[in-house]
Amino acid sequence: MDYWVNDTNGVPFFVVTAMGNEGMIHYLRTTIIPRLLRDVPRQPTDAELLADPDRHRFVVVFDREGWSPAFFAELWRKHRIAVQTYRRGSYAPWPVEAFAEQVVPVAHGNVTRLHLAEQDLHHAACAATAELPAVRLREIRRLCDDRVHQTAIVTTVRQGDMAKIAGHMFARWAQENFFKYAETEFSIDRLAGYATAEAPGHETIKNPDYVALDAKLRKIRADLAKTQAQRGRLVLDSNDASRVAEHLLRCQQLDQRLAELAEQRIALLDQRKKTKKRIKLADIPVDQRPRLIAPARTQFLNTIRITSYRAETALANMLRDHLSRPDDIRVLLQDLFTQDADLIVDREGKTLTVSVHHFTNPQASRAINAILEELNHSETIYPGTNLMLRYQLVSAPSPAGQEV
User: Fold this and answer.
1) DSSP classification of residue 381
2) Could you report the per-residue pLDDT of 148-166, keeping only the tens digit for each?
3) Which residues contact residue 333 at a Cβ distance below 8 angstroms, ignoring those fewer than 6 apart?
4) 114: which strand partners?
5) Which of 59, 44, 70, 47 is nearest to 7 (CA)?
6) pLDDT of residue 106
7) Where are the domains of the chain?
8) CA nearest neighbour of 152 among 87, 98, 99
9) What does 262-307 look like in DSSP terms, one character per residue?
């Protein structure tokens, strides 16, 4: 399982390859959060956090798989990290009158309008104790256009209005868009190879013995329900002695079956209770231990994918001011990456010039020329040389004297 960590605009920050199946909260706690604490830029200092008890280091946004008020409280109390996620489970609707239209900021300076409302959410895991302070949970709901469905967001962010928080939560779709694009253009969902590796001994999986007992219990419960239904459908429809005897015999058989199933259920419950639910891979016999797809090649390719996507996104942001349709931006960049170009090395002038051939569409050529000029201002040295990279279009799209 890969856990991709992206920024607000859906640009990948890093990816964690989970070698076990402990779930998102485990990898947030053991891998993702420690790396974010180390790498997230512009975090407030400990002195700044001490001076303002409502300030957070940064906000982590995830879907319902990470739902755990106890974990939210742990992140705030231990690290002053705030979270945002969708509320899990069923909840009673709020009155429609409680919602008001808000201007919600979204990506790239755009805004949208949503009907929002807010209340505090009380949970025992976040309540104050003798040793620990209370952790505030805010519940923010969006009233959908049908005026019936309500989407509930829960956050530990203390500073910031509900419109800004809602914008961050719904911006999580930028990551879904990244997945869709990266699966198509970067093949992030494909196997990088078939070589296998030894499973890490410290990782845990569900105990195969526990899984087998659990399957037996489900079957016993299903048989119990079926037999109870059969017993309930038995009705004595006559006082005739032979019919009464027949009825009692059928009842006795089903009652005996129910008693046997109940006894088996109790025995299995007791056996399952004594069995570990999870087990370290190192504790599984070698011949039964699963082998995993070797992660090194995947990690190497993911590094290339992240670098490529971030570079493409940087160019896409440059193009936003030059194209009227945002949907055309990445399509044009893909054309640029496959466009014919000449490489001209000038060792005396210490330049490496990339001369890109013009596009058939004049508007595309103008947009590309604008970002090439911006790249020239960066004065980038080509790695491993002393040559400065220069970019240009080969010639004007319609040279003078060629008009017909």
Assistant:
1) B
2) 999 999 999 998 889 999 9
3) 312, 315, 316, 319
4) 102
5) 59
6) 82
7) 2-197, 208-275, 338-404
8) 87
9) HHHHHHHHHHHHTS-SEEEGGGS-GGGPPPEE-HHHHHHHHHHHHH
